[in-house]
Each structure stands twice: as structure tokens, then as C-alpha cells.
Amino acid sequence: MRAFKDPQEQAIWNWLTGTSPTRAAGNKPSPARMPRHRQARPRTPRQIAEDEGLVGLFAPVQGPRKPAPPVAERDRTVAYLLRRHRHRSEAGPLADRWLAACGTFARMREWAEAIGPRSAPAAARLREEGLVLNDLEVHIAGISARRRLRNDEPVEQIIAALRMLGET
Length: 168
Fold this sequence. Notes:
single chain; mainly alpha; 168 residues; 2 strands
């Protein structure tokens, strides 16, 4: 043990090295005697509630979480249209037209991405004619049918042009 003339220096040395000659009950341990371990993980709300005696606030966990129930097709369609175009007043009626034209959200999304989100009547007409998305890749005078639909050309004109190309 190192000896200092100044009692304060000796006390500081003893505290830092953990060599206190008389350690009274209740004294804090010195940094040298502090345990070296990782900090504990933060407690979860469930653990805090149990510690506070609030039993019954949380349902018992019985394995992995169940998947969320599927959202109705119309709600998914409205949400998709709102994300893409942000016209709240038009989203509901437009979603109804798309679902009437395509039936499911997945098909609606494919067609909306192909020909544009405001083209539900065009999609309905094309599907009535038995056309599929691959048919829109056909070039009519150097421009694909898909591009022509996106450029607001009349759907009847595009159907007629596709029929003529199919006959030749």
C-alpha cells in the first residue's frame, strides 16, 4: 500500500485502488472493485408491469405473433391509389371502377401500373375484348399499345389496331 503524507490524497488513492483499510458498511465500492459486465438490456413493458404488480394487462405469449387479418380488397385499392396519386375525393370511386374491371387488388395493380391509374374504363374494355397485359407490348406504328394508352389515345382505336395486326 502506498503511503501519502496528505490524508486526502491517501483517501483518494485508497478509493481509486479499492484498498480501503476500514470499509464501513454502506460505503460504495471503488471503481477498481466495480464489476465489469455488460449493461443489462432495457426492461420490456411486460416486465415493468409484472414488477409493478399490474398482472393481466398483457395477454400471455404463446408463440409467434399471428399475421394481421387480410385487408379488404377495396381498402387496399383505395390505399394504393392514395399512395400513388393523393386525390382523396377520387380514390373511392376510382377504386370501385378498378375492382369492377379487374376483380382483385393484384390484377388491378398490374393494370394500373401498365396503363395508368386513371384508366380503369380502358382496362375494363381491354379485358372484355380478351386482351392481356402482354398484348399491350405490341407496337402500332412504332409505339407500343401501352404507351398509346398512357398518352390518352382512345381505347377503341387501339383495340381496332391490335385486331388488324392480329389478322395479318
